[in-house]
HAD phosphoserine phosphatase-like hydrolase, family IB
Amino acid sequence: MKRIYAFDFDGTLTDKDTLPAFIRFAKGGIRMAAGFLYFSPLIVLMKLHLYPNWKVKQQVFSWFFKGMEAGVFDRLCLAFARQNPQLLRPEGVATVKRILGEPETAVVVISASIDNWVRPFFDGFGGKVQVLGTQIEVADGLLTGRFTSRNCYGQEKVNRLTALYPHRKDYRLTAFGDSRGDRELLAYADRGFYKPFRNGETECGK
């Protein structure tokens, strides 16, 4: 039976959230601080579960990147990944490499982050890692600031995985996550690991 391994990205395979890290890389610390200060009321409401996560994320992304040329954005994403390999947890990278060496397996990274900057982190894996992230809209070569997919968070992670692998009885699923946004994916898996690749890793009960 085929084995699918699904990994969250931010906080699971990385040691921090890459959205603020990417914004700092692309726009600088002062610009990043100004933007997050501007959106701080909405961020607080989001943390209190009084405002949708995806709306805050899209508004923040739009504030920083709306109107940027798509080619410029993609070059920034590639440079960000190449210049920040230390963001990846070594044990997570080693686990992915080990899995890819096993027969009848597939590795999927399912992230709420924009897939443009997640995918380049796996360029050195021979195209064997599939990345399912939040996708952005481009019109006339420019970023509109809007998303073309649902924010890949919560149940949407399960939806994206089942769209790719619809025949659930044909494979065993192992999932790795670290936050509330991974809860549904961990519950859907045959085996789920919470906060892996660090001290205090736990396997979710079934």
In short: Residues 2 and 171 are 5 Å apart (CA to CA). The first helix runs from residue 18 to 27. The mean pLDDT is 93.
